[in-house]
Amino acid sequence: MNTNQCLCKSGQTYQQCCQPFHQLQQKPDTCEQLMRSRFSAFCLQLGEYLFSTYHPNFRDNLTIEQLSEKSLDWKNLEIVHSNDGLDKGTVEFKAWYLFEDQLHCHHELSNFVKEHDQWLYCDGTFYPGQKSGKIQRNDTCPCGSGKKYKKCCA
């Protein structure tokens, strides 16, 4: 994966982007970087990383094993907006995935806090009305391929 575009769609290679975070060589400087690295970690089933970047007060009964399971086929990440404060931030994003041969969108406004010089995911507000069905056949496919939807994931 060292020469491929990072799964988070930042435009950088995985080595330049999310790999240093996943290998604990660096910490994300912004909540958007953390969001992107968590998306890539979901794609790669890096449950330990996801667990360690999840704020302990919001984990409930979540386990590393659950976070390591491949439940969805993630295709693309679109950052709608991000806002970093000194110790709190938000990222609104759309994450596209295939489920039962249909493309769907997970649209969320995520909340983050920075503790001990590390950004952590807390929770989010979901927009279920924008899950799927909004993509027109001639629209560019949201999976990131650059093809029309009807020639790609439709």
UniProtKB/TrEMBL annotation:
Q: Which domain of life is it from?
A: Bacteria
The segment(s) forming the YchJ-like middle NTF2-like domain are: 30-124
The record, for InterPro entries, names: NTF2-like_dom_sf, SEC_C_motif, YchJ-like_M
Q: What is this protein called?
A: YchJ family protein
The protein's organism comes out as Psychromonas arctica
